[in-house]
Design a protein that fits this description.
Number of strands: 20
Order of helices and strands: EHEHEHEHEHEHEEEHEEEEEEEHHEEEHE
Oligomer: single chain
Distance between the termini: 49 Å
CATH superfamily of the largest domain: Dihydrodipicolinate Reductase, domain 2
Largest sheet: 10 strands, mixed
CATH class of the largest domain: Alpha Beta
């Protein structure tokens, strides 16, 4: 499709994270690239501003994806799906089988069997699916990847990702699936590695490969998964993924830190090392000498992933920034970590600092005592929490994920 008309999006949901998609489409609308074609609002009146705007503009509003697909086929070109993790597989498959390409929020899904079913649907229909790992649309990430592919730091040996964020009890009250392992028989695995910090675990796997538009594929994964908050899934995790190219990816993340700070990603190669902290800046060093630096203006990755999808739809580009197939490495890392741990473990109350806060509205903060020092020590030694003597940590074993076809937690 070579025409340059506005690309129309059928948006599934305008509340929660759907609001980010509303804002992204409004930005590309101002740029003359795309617009709303139809929308799903399951509960009318719940999001009055977004709904009023669409009613005013005559945009069709439906109560379900099924109705939008059947009644508004000619009103939109791409289905934008920012729904909960458990909805990703069925809704993406419904959309592509109805003949639409898809922009789907990250993570792609929770299990390898879901991913296989989704990839089979794309192959069967000839459609494509862009996954909303927004940092993949960051020009700094893409330029740093290019430097790695060009051999600037040599063969990648290790990638170390560290993240410290603070999330309070209100974060886990935002929807029905927050912090859940599953809904019925459908896996969600909502936690650091499969939701808020999933971007950065995925970036670590992406940087571990020196092949363009490829992530290093985990072969074995050892993970430790804990919760400081009163949830089923994990809010604090560490893992080691040994990949098909020999690189090792280490991830350390918590949502129970004393404060939120920028993510750090260090890539160690045979000839040098690279550093990225989640900002628009990245650096490469050989020894102690800085040999490359890249910085770009702050650009919201959500807007970029929509722009890229539009250019691919129009035939102006061939490459999606984050096609569904690229996310297999992330799904295997997540599934492997959960299989390695078996069940998440609660961090004992004695290791926590819990405080009630009055502003900006009443909430409860939960902090793991000394978590920052523990992460830094474990990362420096390339070990997991149990290896460095965290008193609440559980020793785990690595699991083989190279041929994983079905993910299932123990009963």
């Amino acid at each position: 499709m070579a025409e340059n008309r506005m690309v129309r999006f059928g948006l599934v949901g305008v509340g929660g994270y759907g609001d980010a998609y509303v804002r992204a489409i409004r930005v590309i609308e101002q740029e003359g690239l795309g617009t709303f074609g139809a929308a799903v609002i399951r509960t009318r009146g719940k999001y009055p501003d977004a709904e009023a705007d669409m009613v005013k503009r005559g945009i069709p509003i439906r109560p379900s994806l099924e109705e939008m697909l059947s009644l508004d086929r000619g009103a939109f070109d791409i289905a934008a799906i920012p729904t909960g993790i458990e909805c990703h597989r069925p809704q993406m498959i419904q959309a592509v089988e109805a003949g639409f390409n898809v922009v789907l929020e990250k993570p792609s899904t929770a299990t390898v069997q879901d991913l296989d079913a989704m990839e089979a649907a794309l192959k069967r229909t000839g459609q494509w699916c862009q996954i909303g790992f927004q940092s993949q649309s960051n020009s700094t990430v893409r330029e740093l990847k290019r430097q790695i592919c060009d051999g600037r730091i040599g063969r990648v040996r290790e990638v170390i990702v560290k993240g410290f964020w603070m999330r309070d009890n209100l974060y886990y009250a935002r929807n029905a699936w927050a912090g859940k392992l599953r809904n019925g028989s459908t896996y969600i695995l909502d936690g650091t590695i499969n939701n808020p910090m999933a971007h950065y675990l995925f970036n670590g796997l992406y940087f571990a490969s020196a092949e363009w538009n490829r992530a290093a594929m985990p072969v074995t994964v050892r993970g430790e998964l804990y919760h400081a908050h009163d949830i089923e899934s994990e809010d604090t995790s560490c893992l080691e993924a040994v990949c098909d190219n020999g690189a090792r990816v280490f991830f350390y993340g918590t949502l129970a830190a004393s404060a939120s700070t920028t993510i750090s990603v260090e890539i160690i190669g045979e000839k040098g090392r690279a550093w990225w902290d989640g900002t628009p800046a990245a650096k490469i060093f050989v020894g102690d000498k800085e040999v490359w630096q890249h910085s770009t203006p702050v650009i919201d990755g959500r807007f970029e992933l929509f722009r890229n999808a539009i250019r691919v739809f129009r035939g102006q580009e061939q490459e999606l920034y984050c096609p569904l197939s690229l996310t297999r490495a992330h799904v295997l890392a997540v599934d492997g970590a959960f299989l390695s741990m078996g069940r998440t473990a609660a961090i004992p109350a004695a290791a926590l600092e819990v405080s009630e806060q009055a502003t900006p509205k009443p909430h409860v903060r939960t902090v793991i005592k000394g978590i920052e020092d523990l992460v830094h020590r474990a990362a420096a030694e390339r070990k997991l929490f149990s290896d460095v003597g965290a008193p609440w940590a559980v020793r785990t074993k690595a699991v083989d994920v190279a041929g994983l076809k079905t993910f299932e937690l123990p009963a």
